[in-house]
Specification:
By secondary structure, this protein is of the alpha+beta class. The protein is 36% helix and 10% strand.
């Protein structure tokens, strides 16, 4: 990877690939293209990561999925990945991500990213006019051979650091692509991680229904399961505190880990104010706390029907959420149980359980923080 990042011709090839991967994002390369560029560098070097547009999403995929180590600023070496966070905008997520090509001292580096075309350029870990680097990530594999480069002078014409966390991702964590529906909107391909012996509900996992000719595509298909609005909706602080208590008791989570889950739930259902998705791209849309969609919506309704629970009830939503965390998404639960911060837990649940079209980590962290405060205020 260092060799590729040191060769101007290879840099141009990688940046051209990154420009193609930004199509459909609403931005033209090099704007908001740091993660797309780095993920293409990684792929060119044989590191199997999905093409990724969000800087924090890419950092999470390296740290959580690929087990890269977190390294303190000042301890970085060539081959490390720098992760920056904005202070001025209080953005919950990385504002820039880049590859270290040569480390001149504990602050000055020579790096490659989307900001300088066809070449490396100097950057200070401390920022010095740009976003400061919060930490570095280091691959678990053996050391990389590096090419010695001169840092040179800072370029005043570099592209600015930019928040990329609301960009839609073209690929899931496992590299499987999203599919484009008839309306032209991109959505995640529904996939199950379920093991057959763990499944308690005999509902086939199928793709989103393509036509209303299939009776299950009609919301009326589930009419017998629909109930009047129940206690799954209500004041956020009360329900968030209650749900945190249950998650802590049921799964042995700590407060930050439980808050990370509840923060995502709050973002999905409007702070426990709505269960049916408004204006879905493809009816009937998402339903419930987690806005379960497609096959997961069908499983949710069938599960509640078999258990005699209302899909509008607190117990029904909690029971199905727990069912998924114990079966098809048990690896997500395991990763959350290993997380160390509220932000980490929120990001894991976002990227590995919810998998939304447009990840918005900032909103989910805000809900998670509010949930934690409500829980602490309740004296639980």
């Amino acid at each position: 990877m260092i060799k590729i990042g040191s060769d101007p011709d290879q840099i141009k090839k990688v940046q051209t690939a990154a420009a193609k991967s930004m199509k459909g994002s609403g931005y033209k390369y090099p704007t908001k293209s740091c993660a797309a560029t780095l993920s293409q560098f990684l792929r060119a070097a044989g590191i199997d990561v999905p093409v990724t547009r969000g800087a924090q999403n890419l950092a999470d995929r390296l740290r959580i999925n690929r087990k890269w180590s977190r390294v303190k600023v000042g301890k970085q070496v060539a081959g490390d990945v720098g992760v920056c966070r904005s202070v001025k905008n209080d953005v919950a997520g990385a504002d820039h991500i880049y590859l270290v090509i040569d480390n001149k001292n504990d602050d000055l580096m020579n790096i490659v990213d989307n900001q300088a075309q066809g070449k490396t350029h100097p950057r200070y870990a401390s920022g010095k006019g740009r976003t400061a680097t919060e930490y570095f990530l280091r691959a678990q594999a053996g050391e990389m051979r590096l090419a010695e480069l001169d840092a040179g002078e800072l370029d005043e014409n570099l592209v600015e650091d930019e928040d990329t966390n609301d960009l839609p991702e073209p690929f899931m964590d496992d590299g499987s692509p999203r599919i484009e529906n008839e309306a032209g909107a991109v959505s995640f391909r529904e996939e199950s991680e379920a093991e057959t012996e763990d499944s308690e509900v005999d509902v086939p996992l199928v793709e989103e229904l393509e036509s209303a000719r299939d009776p299950r595509a009609d919301p009326a298909y589930f009419s017998e399961l629909m109930f009047a609005s129940g206690d799954a909706v209500g004041p956020f602080d009360r329900l968030a505190s209650h749900l945190m208590s249950d998650l802590i008791a049921d799964f042995g989570l700590n407060r930050d880990q439980a808050a990370g889950i509840v923060g995502n739930v709050g973002a999905e259902c409007g702070g426990f104010s709505v269960l049916q998705e408004r204006h879905p791209i493809r009816p009937p849309g998402g339903y419930g706390w987690c806005q379960w969609t497609g096959p997961r919506r069908k499983q949710f309704f069938s599960f509640c029907h078999e258990k005699g629970l209302s899909v509008d009830s607190y117990d029904g939503n909690l029971a199905f959420l727990s069912h998924e965390l114990n079966t098809s998404y048990k690896r997500v639960l395991s990763n959350i149980q290993k997380s160390r911060t509220l932000e980490d837990a929120t990001s894991i649940f976002l990227m590995q359980f919810e998998k939304p079209l447009t990840p918005n980590l900032r909103t989910r962290v805000r809900y998670a923080t509010r949930a934690l405060r409500a829980y602490e205020a309740s004296g639980s």
